[in-house]
Amino acid sequence: MFKRISALLLAGAVTMTMAGCGGDGGSGGSAGDGKITMGFSQVGAESGWRTANTKSVQTAAEAAGVTLKFSDAQQKQENQIKAIRSYIQQKVDVIAFSPVVESGWDTVLKEAKNAAIPVILTDRAVDSKDTSLYKTFLGSDFVEEGRKAGKWLTEEFKDTKDPVNIVELQGTTGSAPANDRKAGFAEAIGTDPKFKVIASQTGDFTRAKGKEVMEAFLKANPDIDVLYAHNDDMGLGAIEAIEGAGKVPGKDIKIITIDAVKDGMQALADGKISYIVECSPLLGPQLMDLAAKAVKGESIPARVVTEETTFTQEQAKEALPSRQY
Length: 325
Ligand code: GZL
Prior knowledge:
Layout: E1 37-42, H1 48-64, E2 67-72, H2 77-89, E3 94-97, H3 106-114, E4 119-122, E5 136-139, H4 142-156, E6 164-170, H5 176-189, E7 195-202, H6 207-220, E8 226-229, H7 232-244, E9 254-259, H8 262-269, E10 275-278, H9 284-295, E11 303-305, E12 310-311, H10 313-319
Parallel strand pairs: 1-2, 1-3, 3-4, 4-5, 5-11, 6-7, 6-8, 8-9, 9-10
Antiparallel strand pairs: 10-12
Helix pairs in contact: 1-9, 2-3, 4-5, 6-7, 8-10
């Protein structure tokens, strides 16, 4: 399920002086020293993307003078709910989190709202009908990422008359990126019946699971033409399985992934991955700007879409030396 949210780009990053009260005399935070305290619940440490995202949030908090209380949920929703309740108890100024799955958040978000603590969704979305439960959602348009992957595939195989057999490694079951990347890709390839998704299963965004599931796909399907993996890490795990089966990744099986972390970009430059759709983890600075405004009661856009691009093998070779993550 994906909500079409009118994407509002944050028009230019407004740098806020975090320390001290704003000109409006609004309080800068509960500590009384003008510093903001943020409670942040992170999904886990499942992928290279997540590691880069955590680093971006922690570095941006330090640069902005925000006191960060950080917790790693190890990809468990109950741990995120516990962390959010703990932040409410501690009376933090603002709560930010990346919901591991879309559903099941209304109760704890209502508790935050009743405690008058603003909540910011970062990276992933929730499917709560009550959008007053959070101030904004800062993150990628995952449906568009899936569309970009599908559009590249239709172009790559436009002259092929035979069926194109696709296997799909989905992200974490129930997560917004998995749901939306699947939907966007299906929409883009659905224009031509020659594209057939012959198997689709979660690899939980990890290399290990991606390898395990790809091994099973290869055993059950001798004629796979394409792998669509919802992130680089599962694609990299799948490459090990493909090579273990005596096939050539990028040649016998074209591989499309999403993220564009360094290891994925290296595999793209080496020709093992065929195309990568970027999903930027560098959300930290925008998150801190939005948090400062939310704490001061200033209005912020309901949706902030991160800007991102795509990479071919040639583009990866050029971009690799300057990649931040
Ligand atoms: C996307 C993010 C996803 C990445 C994966 O914004 O939530 O989770 O694509 C990560 O690599 O595990």
